[in-house]
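Running co-folding for phosphoenolpyruvate.
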Amino acid sequence: MIVVMKTDTPNLEVQRIIEELQSESITPEKIVGKHKVIIGLVGDTATLNPEHLQQLSPFIEKVMRVDKPFKRASLEFRHGEPTEVSVTTPNGVVVFGQNHPLVTIAGPCSVENEAMIVETAQLVKAAGAQFLRGGAYKPRTSPYSFQGHGETALELLAAAREATGLGIITEVMDTADLEKVASVADIIQIGARNMQNFSLLKKVGNQDKPVFLKRGMASTIEDWLMAAEYIMAAGNPNVILCERGIRTFDRKYTRNTLDLAAIPVLRTLTHLPIAIDPSHGTGKSEYVPTMAKAAIAAGADSLMIEVHPNPAKALSDGPQSLNPRQYKVLMQEIAVIEKVFETDDQKLSLPTGTSVSTAQALPKAQLTM
Ligand code: PEP
Ligand code: MN
């Protein structure tokens, strides 16, 4: 249930209502949006009567029930206002969100050695990426496949961050590694295979780093939003949803089926930012650019793309990785596509410290730095 306050309600009045609604079974939560303040009520709200609540204060605009199983993740919970996930990287603040320029994340599936990760970081940065991805702990189907270099790889990611100023995103697979991963990562990835690892979701919800939540390969949109709800219920509102392809009956020509329809569907259900991973989504590098561009047309807020300096020699996911030259070409095409689909809000959203004249000279993919 949500209580929407009228514009200009005094803070003390909001506080008074929160205290009045606080009980053993209900936790009121203050949500300050750009235009409205909302009090979200999560818990046993079945016994509450919206008409009675409305009488609590003349400053209450309306009281509404959220009839979805996901509450904090629901569009209603923020009264339709998109969430902005701001991440501070050495190069500046990058914002994931509907009214902001596309955020691009690129890098190898796995961190293999220092030279390759630093070189890849430099190349994807030069092409316009804001984040470097790279797996330290790899969820592999076979126990005999390369499992990632673990803690050593985290140190190499830190070196690449230092060398380029790019933000780092890397996966945590085990609650035992969370602290180590969070000490290096600017964003923590929960992989498709762990989307319903509820103890892991609670743990990442109970720390401050934003979470990049990949959709489980056999998960419905509702399962996925309930996974986001676990993270948010544990206290972390900074969740980015990432569609990375789902399993369908046809796996002969693509590794997964990239569900781009999830973008417009999610827009009707949630305020959370949406990323698309066309690399795992297709499993083939030749299809990645097409689906990346389609994702922008469909309204994605961010793209995650696997890039390897020599895909033929990659220790994991080589067939779906672009080489740096292919990535550079794609980024140039992306800048054009982005312009076509740019909204008025995105046009107005300039990165802190960027002057209008510099911004106009930059491709959009570089504008959030
Ligand atoms: C990855 O990003 O390399 C990865 C393993 O992703 P997913 O969990 O989507 O398979
Ligand atoms: Mn991969």
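Result summary
The chain has two domains: 2-65, 85-357.
The pocket of phosphoenolpyruvate (ligand 1) is lined by residues 109, 135, 139, 191-193, 214, 244, 280 (CB under 6 Å).
Job closed.
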